Amino acid sequence: MGAVSQFMETNYKHFNARETLAAAKAWKALLDKGGKMFITLAGAMSSAELGISLGQMIRAGKVHAISCTAANLEEDLFNLFDNHSYEVVPNWRELTAEMERDLRDRGFNRVTDTCIPETVMLKAEATLLDIWKQADKNGTRKFMCEYFFDMLDRPEIKQHFAIPAEHSWVLAAKEMQVPIFSPGFEDSTLANKFTAMVMDGRLSSHSLIKSGTEIMHVLAEWYMAQADAGTPVGFFQIGGGIAGDFPICTVPMLIQDLHKDDTPFWAYFCQISDAVTSYGGYSGANPSEKITWYKLDVDTPRFMINSDATIVAPLIFAYVMDW
Predict the structure, then answer these.
(1) Structural domains of the chain in order of their starting residue, each with its CATH number
(2) Is the pLDDT of residue 242 over 90?
């Protein structure tokens, strides 16, 4: 057991700390019995550089499928290509409206303490436009992550890396053939670019990007393949929103809509969220609520960690990796 794991064993005895250690132990137990882990990324995890630890988890075979917002998908590559141009604002809580305007006028978009330069978005747009135009010409339709993989396949792209390649979780997923499911592509910067290109005629159709229901179809087939192989699948959720709610609904869809009554429930559930339990909110809902929706069962190991995912997730990853 590594130093970080030993520290957690010694000190994480109560409250969110105890829940964090218990969730990490249960993740390891799931893998030890031949299970797989499905992880979801909401919030701004890529801009927070979670890829430094998540990339290692993927390459070590500890993560087997990923659902993420389209923003997390693109922001991992923005970070890969232009991290050296980012600016960090330590006193972000003290920024005035005028200071925010100055950041905007200097070409930055702020995410908490991290300012992303608009130039990196323009670089990605230029490369993707070429790829999208070729797909348009060939009548090809793909998922957004597949177009990103095409971009990463270009031999000249490596010269643009601004950080070690192993710090990109998208690149790790591509190399390890870990499937990425990214619903709601329209809620992203590059989707705005794509829409503008269709509107001004540079691209002919929105259908170049496969739809969300098509993503659900592929995800359901992936889950059924695990079930047919007798492989239990856990669900590790960072934040809430579409990245988590979309994929977890695969199980109730298979049971209730496709009438596959023998579909196993998710075999593990953990959520890291700073959302409080509220009236009707998904992000702060108690895990036990998911039992009523055919997502989890009574005996499913369930954990809810109310904390900052940028702190907690790398600690859990460290424990699973025996660091």
Answers:
(1) 3-83+119-320 (3.40.910.10)
(2) yes
